[in-house]
Structure of Trehalose utilization protein:
Amino acid sequence: MSDSIKVTVWNEYLHEKKDEEVARVYPKGIHNAIAEYLNTQPGIQAKTATLDMPEHGLTDDVLNDTDVLMWWGHIAHDQVSDEVVDKVYSRIMDGMGLIVLHSAHFSKIFKKLMGSTCNLKWREAGEKERLWVVEPGHPIAEGLPEYIEIPHTEMYGERFDIPQPDTLVFISWFAGGEVFRSGCCYNRGNGKIFYFRPGHETFPIYYQPEVQKVLSNAVRWAAPADGPKPNFGNVKPLESI
Amino acid sequence: MSDSIKVTVWNEYLHEKKDEEVARVYPKGIHNAIAEYLNTQPGIQAKTATLDMPEHGLTDDVLNDTDVLMWWGHIAHDQVSDEVVDKVYSRIMDGMGLIVLHSAHFSKIFKKLMGSTCNLKWREAGEKERLWVVEPGHPIAEGLPEYIEIPHTEMYGERFDIPQPDTLVFISWFAGGEVFRSGCCYNRGNGKIFYFRPGHETFPIYYQPEVQKVLSNAVRWAAPADGPKPNFGNVKPLESI
Amino acid sequence: MSDSIKVTVWNEYLHEKKDEEVARVYPKGIHNAIAEYLNTQPGIQAKTATLDMPEHGLTDDVLNDTDVLMWWGHIAHDQVSDEVVDKVYSRIMDGMGLIVLHSAHFSKIFKKLMGSTCNLKWREAGEKERLWVVEPGHPIAEGLPEYIEIPHTEMYGERFDIPQPDTLVFISWFAGGEVFRSGCCYNRGNGKIFYFRPGHETFPIYYQPEVQKVLSNAVRWAAPADGPKPNFGNVKPLESI
Amino acid sequence: MSDSIKVTVWNEYLHEKKDEEVARVYPKGIHNAIAEYLNTQPGIQAKTATLDMPEHGLTDDVLNDTDVLMWWGHIAHDQVSDEVVDKVYSRIMDGMGLIVLHSAHFSKIFKKLMGSTCNLKWREAGEKERLWVVEPGHPIAEGLPEYIEIPHTEMYGERFDIPQPDTLVFISWFAGGEVFRSGCCYNRGNGKIFYFRPGHETFPIYYQPEVQKVLSNAVRWAAPADGPKPNFGNVKPLESI
């Protein structure tokens, strides 16, 4: 048990309370739908946290006990306090993994880590998406077919204004004519970050088995590696000069 | 003349006014030493701007007329206003190049673009540095020898907490036993960014011909490419769905 | 004139002589269609070479006088002699640029440079392709719109078994449901390599202005940078040990 | 046991039989020294193979039962048959990991995978090397200190003529004034490749605990990910066109 990867699934948790259609799809919220799936996977222990909790549920105790943070946000990015964002950022620099879902491309923490606008094209027409695996040897592609089809989804299209990923795992095709870099891996500080495009509040995408498989693969990939914690600042020479 | 690359060399310009030793090396400031060199190069037109000017000399008019911004800062990063940083950032997203010199690794604009702490090891012992070209086919290596020796310099050592460069051009060796990724290229937004380690306020490094050659090569590399300006936001499908 | 980039456009030149339909589209061969366009561009001088010439037209004199080699092949990759491939390879290691077109993904020289199978999916159905610019600040995207539409083309689909590009400039969308990494930049040795997907023997793709623009941009990007020629082998220490 | 990673440590095994000094350091050969260490590690099962065996010990049965192949060669690269190299290459394309040690930078298999000359500078003066971890969040850095010191070693210096690594984990400093990219990760086909510089036939480097730790970390990182096996060739459209 002590070797499990500890995941905190964070959700702004607003849509599900305000909108009946969303509540029908995710009655306990997107965070619980994902956490329940993750808790079926060996070696993963998932909890949840939401915007309305004190410190958005991301207290020092919670963050220090989190190996991988998963982030869903959409309409309330601005309500996340800068102080919490700074703490999350510091934990990532120290090695915590971060998995950024769908509309969280515009979250404060993702924009801060990317250093670019993270802007994109979008359209809500319920069209078809097909995610192609372009790096089949990557751990996040484990157990997947050559492509994942999502029958109805919101479209995100290029130009996606992000730094070129350290590794690009998925590229999406959309019926309406666009493409998108949908699975993007980054090292930042001692932490690993994975952006994953699929997901929506009114389509049941996080119940789709291939999508769930990507989420658990990503958790394992993003878990801290326990590498050296760098020393910074003024240092003495290691050789006589 | 209209095809020249327009460079603005920015300097916090404090050391040179406070410290006699610095003033002896750079009597008109580091910014003017660099700009004077750049103005000897065909196809480059350089001006300067400093912290003490209104809006730090980086007004909308100046930024809109700048193809490549070169940045030196050391002891006054915090005095640069966030508003100016945001304007510089927006211009880079739109395509302006940025060349970040030495201690400007800790400038607000570089940290904002990198999304990591940009921390490092350092030592002021006047030791020897040797920069090895590791990507000799890159335009920034044009006309250079296999390595550049800097007889006396401040040391910067790894771990340098930056995203892995899109292209790594130089790696430094230091007499005291450290190494450093000293020439780092990044695409961010429509802009190009080059971090270059050498330079110091009391060593005459920016007068060294190979170092100057790197600076003019970097200006040419970082000049805007005039690619498509992305459209973002809600879009209609290009195909019938 | 002496500062012009010297391009050699190589073509196996078989389809055009065997097949009336191809000959109607490219009466003087694909190589001449491309070379004629390139010769309208300032600072570029293009010649041609073909498989049936002695040494396939790629003698030492020709290669030593070539800054950028463009390569078209389709049905006769095996007829290219290993000796010529080795010479081309050596010139690339020394700095010559290489632009690999469409079906030349399976050329001996490209497979040798990539170190992977370069295999892919394909279909000849004359369907629509849309190339999206995903790195708009890259010099190869200069002057382009956000996407290029090719009304009728052969499809190439992922997984494209190549090393992750150093920079990925284009991603293609196909009507039949596939995506493809269509504009891929690599540094190898002192040389630069650009793989560009579009092109076909029976569709007039190399007459399309945006496609031509990519070709001339790629020539400028791939031109040798005149960096240091590395010394290899046994060396004396630069410091006393 | 069935979940163990199966490693084959390959050695040309010539130095150890010809040279008393080498035999004193590695009495059972470098391959056995490494395999014995690996077999002390949980979840790893290592066997060995050598040049003088039929098919160099790399029969179909052996290769099909190998998850990660480790390769040491120095003076007999040319004696490795092209047929065996082609089989190893095919297995890597299918997902087998490859760890390339020290002088195996010039092995046929590494050069074939890199597509460049893999040339470098070298010197046998028994000088000091210090490997700095530059990507501390990478799995291969797990459990390591900030740097590894090797008191006496052969020097390898830049320019190392390789493709820019997908991830660069280590940079070496040498007493004689050179630097080197000493830990280089690549994806090729479905396989993962790690080049690791340290090691020599007369210095006891593979008995050094930090070096051994890198080897077992690399085995875990390079183990096959069981991603999708791509389908190549002519395909039907997935959408009506």
User: Anything to note?
Assistant: The helical segments of chain B are 15-18, 20-25, 29-38, 60-64, 82-93, 108-114, 209-222. The domain at 5-118+180-222 of chain B is CATH 3.40.50.880 (Rossmann fold). Residues 123 and 155 of chain B are 5 Å apart (CA to CA). The longest strand of chain B covers residues 121-133.
